[in-house]
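Subject — a protein and its fold
Encoding — discrete vocabulary of local shapes:
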Amino acid sequence: MTSEEVRLNVERALEEIRPFLRNDGGDISLISIEDDDRLVKVQLQGACVGCSVNTMTLKSGVEMTIKRYVPQIEKVLNIEK
């Protein structure tokens, strides 16, 4: 998978997740893909910022969905403002 394909698939994964986040008043944006396409940095937004379950959302929702689209991704990090 090329870096461009990785980026497109990560964006597809985020599009799948967005309706759930928006339903709770939040959102997510892709910041970068680094370390030979193994690390994804995202930024949770809106109600997701400071939410007590955002770590769980990031691991069980966001990271799991991204890995389903791009299995080579090893880690997803939330970059806070």
Remarks:
- The first strand starts at residue 26 and ends at 34.
- Helices lie at 3-23, 54-69.
